[in-house]
Amino acid sequence: MRWRGVPLDVLLAVSGVALDLFTTAHAGDTTYLPVEANLPMGLLAGLPMGFVRSRPVPVTLYLAALLVITDQLGSYTSNTAQILLCVAVGVAGFRSGRRGTVVAAAAAIAATAVNIADPGIALTVNSWMYSVLLPVVPAVLGAYLRGSAGPLEERDVTPDALLAAGGVAITVLSTWTTWHSGSQPVWVVGLLAVVGGLSLGVARRLPGLVLLGQGVLLVCADTYLNEAVNTCVILTLISVGVFAMRVASAAWLVAAYAAGCMLTAIAVVGEGTEVTPFRVGVLMMLVATPIAIGRYLGMRQAAAAAERLRAEEAARAAVAQVRADQLAERERIARDVHDIVAHHVGAMVLRASAARYTAPDGPVADALSDIRETGHQVLQDLRDLLDLLREPERQPHLLADPTDVVRESAERMAAAGLVVDLHLDPATDQAPLTARASAARIVQEGLTNVLKHAGPGTRVSVSVAPEGEGLSVEIRNGPPPTVIERLPSSGRGLAGMRERVRALGGTLSAGPDGEGGWLLAASLPARSAT
What we know:
Organism: Nonomuraea bangladeshensis
EC number: 2.7.13.3
Order of helices and strands: HHHHHHHHHHHHHHEHEEHEE
Strand content: 5-15%
Strand order of the largest sheet: 1-2-3-5-4
Distance between the termini: 38 Å
Radius of gyration: 42 Å
Pfam families: HATPase_c (PF02518), HisKA_3 (PF07730)
Largest sheet: 5 strands, mixed
InterPro entries: HATPase_C_sf (IPR036890), HATPase_dom (IPR003594), Sensor_HK_TwoCompSys (IPR050482), Sig_transdc_His_kin_sub3_dim/P (IPR011712)
Number of helices: 16
Helix content: 55-70%
Number of strands: 5
Transmembrane segments: 101-122, 128-145, 157-179, 185-203, 224-244, 250-268, 280-298
């Protein structure tokens, strides 16, 4: 589940108000504010947290001002404002740019310095260091989380948010009644409780650092605030479990287990505690449980990642197999086409060659020579097609210059009866070879269609000219000179031309010209579309 939008903002605002009510529950009247003002002050401190995700810098500036005001009024809400100010600075570091983070941190540093200094007492070097480090640490942490926080593959931060929320709930609900009983200021204890809980939000990305921090917090609580020791033990065991989930090294697991046993022993063993084998075994089992759970979850995550990797490899292998099958089928089809068509065309060429030597000179001999040359060209094209189907990545071999192909096509169609008017711009030789080759094929197909559908005697105008870095081709024919019987057509010629032009990223149009004729126009760019 992903938390988004208004519900999370409402939860943040309610949590801010609740935190202030917890910290001021035992507070009475102050010099300037009666006890009845605790609720309005809690609303002033907590409700702006509902806007901290969308406007972290303004909220930080507001809380900094509120901290200064409440500190001067002597209100206990200053403790809440100090805690929420550090949270807002961390959010600003996560969601804002460098400039916004610097502004938010500077305001927080100034407000914290005012809160720490007593009236009439100058700030010392230690106080300044504390005032600077307190807001800078969450700002740096937020900025770190905004970047690549760790080697985790998944981008979902929901588990991190749940860990942080659970940690804060545990620390605040179990220790807030004792924040006034220690020697430290209330806001210091409350801030440590909130930071200790929030640190679990980065435990998956920084397991070693969080475990170390929880250990330090546990030792400090055992020395200065015994009422919070049990809570710190829970946080330490959770961080041990997360560490075991993220780190698979046996040596590091043993080190984490030893550290967990040592820290737990420091917390539960006092001066009058009797150490027995049973109690030692219980303590060791207590620390071993989160490690076992963490390793189980880590192994499941590793198994899921391995399964995803196998699935990806299987998908790639399947695609490669399909590709190989397609190539094999292409090669088989190419062989069949070559065997069938080449046999008949070869027989036609042989017969035309034999007839040419026996026929007298004249139109019949010229026609037989043309059939023989065309047949040889068809056989060569078939061989090139077979090679291309066997190796689709291979560039097709051009037997002749595309300009010569255009001229030859015009001459051949003129010999077949068309009246061809060819306009071939000399600058077309500077166009890319792919565009010129496609233009030659379009001219061949276009003239063939004119002869097929309009018949001999039709006047045709062919124009090939530069267009930008590519070429433009235009084939325009007039109306048929006589009524002819239209030959059947599959329409594949025009579809093939469209596909060829589309492959280059160009356009092709074909249709009546409004004067009884037909117009075929193509635009061929220099580079293919991507």
